[in-house]
Design brief:
Elements (H helix, E strand, L loop, with lengths): L7 H12 L7 H11 L7 H8 L8 H10 L6 H13 L9 H20 L11
Length: about 130
């Protein structure tokens, strides 16, 4: 995550978080208040970390790591889409493609698809009711 050694603030923030002191002393109360204020049952944990940071100041190292990790979408849809693209490219007639060529074709196909999606060229699918 860091290109050089981790900053010293990361270690102090981690120690404060684990001991529940300083900036992290009221994190449990903040979570309860946030849960009671939301109308929906699910809340975003990034909101908790955003609430713990001080407005106008740069993010502390532990906050930026937490926001980075919590922003990862845990699903396999992108992997399944890539395997589908590979399956469409690598068929009976094209089974002699090298791995590099197959990867390049799949990346090109997904890039073109993303460009079309951004430019609203592709029709959006209707949702089931």
């Amino acid at each position: 995550f860091y290109s050089s050694d981790a900053p010293l603030d990361l270690y102090t923030d981690l120690e404060d978080y684990l001991s529940g002191s300083r900036d992290f002393a009221n994190i449990d109360i903040y979570k309860v208040v946030l849960l009671s204020c939301t109308e929906k049952e699910v809340f975003d944990p990034i909101d908790i970390w955003a609430g713990l940071s001080h407005p106008g100041s740069p993010l502390r190292p532990l906050h930026s790591i937490a926001q980075h990790l919590l922003s990862i979408c845990p699903n396999s849809a992108s992997c399944e889409c890539l395997f589908s693209v590979f399956g469409a490219i690598l068929m009976k007639w094209r089974n002699r493609l090298s791995t590099e060529t197959l990867t390049l074709i799949a990346e090109l196909k997904m890039y073109v698809h993303e460009e079309h999606t951004q430019n609203n060229v592709i029709k959006k699918r209707l949702k089931r009711r």
